[in-house]
Amino acid sequence: MLVCPNCRRENPEEAQFCTVCGRSLSPDVSGQERPVRREERPESFDIPAPTPPSPLPGIITLGAFAVAIGVLGIWLALRPNPCEGKFTSDRFPYCVAIPEGWRESAQEIGGATADAYRPQTEGAVVLVVAEEVDSGTNTEAYAEVYRDNQEQGGLFPGPARHIDIGGSNGVVWEITGTTEEGTSVRQRQLTVVRDGMGWVITFAGASDGYREHRELFDGMLHSWAWK
């Protein structure tokens, strides 16, 4: 007798299929599991295309840059000219208001050409000269060297103090001396280092009328502007 491996019912020896459930009784099939159909896997996947970046941030950046350039241009166009109505030097980058009745000229000082300003009545002079200085030289160091040179030349510079000139920090002091003719002369010396250049601005005048001329010199310093 053959026992069906599926329903366990007995079948005749010559039977090829179970008379009850119809299962094959062949030895090579009975031990195998019925195949299970599986879904076919796709050979490829649909990958969505990446979303392009939004151009909005770039547009905003360019717009802000354009606005900034426009504002800067308007500011440059509308800002007051600090040298308007003043004398502008051809030798050095500055401008200044010259006192009424004074004239501008040039004067040689130690091999350098200085701007010179004098009243028509003489008795006073303002000299302006500038030179390149070593990198790292500041106003205080430049003033100290200049004062040392004056002392070595037999002069006696007075106490130094700081002063504003055109928005830059300067050092100023006074000197009293006597000319070869015996005339008592007073000087006001100012030094400043700016943009790699050392400036020396000197006011010299006879003791008579010194105060009046010095007030005019102080007015020149207040009107000073850099180019």
Q: Mind sketching the topology for me?
A:
Layout: E1 2-3, E2 10-11, H1 27-30, H2 56-78, E3 87-88, E4 94-96, E5 102-109, E6 112-119, E7 124-132, H3 139-152, E8 161-165, E9 168-178, E10 184-194, E11 197-206, H4 210-223, E12 225-226
Antiparallel strand pairs: 1-2, 3-4, 4-12, 5-6, 6-7, 7-11, 8-9, 9-10, 10-11
What does this entry look like structurally?
There is one protein chain. With 227 residues, the protein is α+β, with helices and mostly antiparallel strands. It has four helices and twelve strands, in the order E-E-H-H-E-E-E-E-E-H-E-E-E-E-H-E. A seven-stranded antiparallel sheet has the order 5-6-7-11-10-9-8. A three-stranded antiparallel sheet has the order 3-4-12. A two-stranded antiparallel ribbon has the order 1-2. The protein is rod-shaped, with a radius of gyration of 50 Å. The mean pLDDT is 84.
Number of helical regions:
4
List segments where confidence is low: pLDDT < 50 over at least 5 consecutive residues. none
Strand content: 25-35%
Radius of gyration: 50 Å
In whole angstroms, the N-to-C terminal distance is 123 Å
Main sheet specs:
7 strands, antiparallel
| N to C succession of SSEs | EEHHEEEEEHEEEEHE
Strand order of the largest sheet: 5-6-7-11-10-9-8
Shape: rod-shaped
Mean pLDDT score: 84
In brief, what are we looking at here?
The protein has 227 residues and is of the alpha+beta class. 24% of the residues lie in helices and 32% in strands. Strands 5-6-7-11-10-9-8 form a seven-stranded antiparallel beta sheet.
